[in-house]
Amino acid sequence: MRRTDLTDATMQAWARLNEPQRQRFFEMFLNATLRLDALALRAWLWRRLQNPPLAAPIDPTRFTISDADMAALLNKLPLRADDADGGTGL
């Protein structure tokens, strides 16, 4: 698991929020600070950073496969166009 600086992650998330969201998050964080100990507050903040609106938006281009990648994958597969049963013998 990649180690992430909680302060940097919080500041990046804060920059993505609009003004009403910032106000709401600030009030929630203040309430959590008053009722939780240090470890519980860290866990609370980490959970908030992994869910919208604080989570980073998903970039759909990260999930695309180029034509060259697709061709390489298809060449590695043992299946052929005439192999209807997928090599299972069923």
Observed structural traits:
90 residues; mainly alpha; 4 helices; elongated
Could you explain how this protein is built, in words?
With 90 residues, the protein is mainly alpha-helical. The chain has four helices and no strands. The radius of gyration is 23 Å and the shape is elongated. The two termini are 41 Å apart. 1% of the residues are buried. The model has no long low-confidence stretch (mean pLDDT 83).
Secondary-structure-based class equals mainly alpha
Mean pLDDT: 83
Q: Please report which band the strand proportion falls in: under 5%, 5-15%, 15-25%, 25-35%, 35-45% or over 45%.
A: under 5%
Helix content: 55-70%
Number of strands: 0
Choose one word for the global shape: elongated
Number of helices: 4
Would you summarize the structure shown here?
The protein has 90 residues and is mainly alpha-helical.
